[in-house]
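Annotators were shown the component list below and the corresponding predicted structure, then asked to write short factual statements about the assembly.
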Amino acid sequence: MSANGKPYVREVSRYGWFLGNPRYRRYMAREVTCVFIGLHALILLVALKRLSEGREAWEAFLHNLTGPAGIVLQLVILAFAIYHSTSWFNVTPKAMPVQIGEQFLPGAVIIGAHYAAWLVATVAVLYLAGAF
Amino acid sequence: MAKSNKPIVWGLFAAGGTVTAFLTPALVLLTLLPVFGVMPELLAYDNLRAFAGHWMGKLVLFGILLLMMWHAAHRLRVTLHDFGVRADGAVAVAVYLAAAAGTLAAAYFLLRI
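Structure shown to annotators:
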């Protein structure tokens, strides 16, 4: 507290506090990915519903998903999903450091291993689903 | 120490974030590929019906959906706080109820296949 008893309080906007700092903006971009992950979960839920309703319902659903609106929606979801993946993997050395004896495994090794596993998982899903 | 449900919620968030990070881009690609003339065999009605008809397929789909929804719900709660929404109690009830409803719906649809 200062001598005259009035502490200095820096003005911080309750809603736009993150806009001025690139670090805060990246943090908020990372947090906002959840909206699109949730949206994708909702699409998968509708997919299950349509699949349970029979062949016609399923084929109509797939037709809509590959229409203009479906394409735009999925491209946006894909962009945010990739941002979620990279931001998630990039903090793994902090979230789960690997200690060997006295030394810690370098962060780049942990992050690199996650990216490699991500690539393998993606190729495996596409292969198992008969995409190629 | 006071009882807390934080470990459960945090565990679901972390597990969901990891599963989502590994699988979601691939899952979106699956339904995006037909646009480019590549039709994954799994998306054909009979094949997907057979996959989701088997108990192992049901389990996989249910697990992925459950984790995705609880991950998104928990992060949405924090995100709303960051955007200046201070009614955390009401937000928590709303997002977790939505995740619970989604989880039940996933189980219901899977059991009808």
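Statements collected:
1. Residues 67 and 73 of chain A are 10 Å apart (CA to CA).
2. Residues 1-90 of chain A form a domain with the 3 helical TM bundles of succinate and fumarate reductases fold (CATH 1.20.1300.10).
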